[in-house]
Structure prediction request, 82 residues.
Amino acid sequence: MKKWRLFSVGLLLLGIALASGCFKPNSPPTAPCNCSGPDLNCSDFSTQAAAQRCYNYCKSEGYGDVFELDRDKDGIACESLP
Prediction:
């Protein structure tokens, strides 16, 4: 009987943790941008690093340089940004 009670309490606690968002199995990381649009320009990013994250992410997802953030095709997005 004790084992059943411990199992029930464990299931209850797991259910509470899942419902409260404490445990999110396999939750994907947040994407730096939406590769499907809306269209982005270098002026939409505050730093070169942010533009680079978007550029790298879209390339890794198979979109390529969908926003043409790397105009000279050297692999560096929005080089004029700080």
Summary: The CA atoms of residues 59 and 65 lie 6 Å apart. The chain is about 40% helix and 0% strand. Residues 2-60 form one domain. The chain has a mean pLDDT of 83.
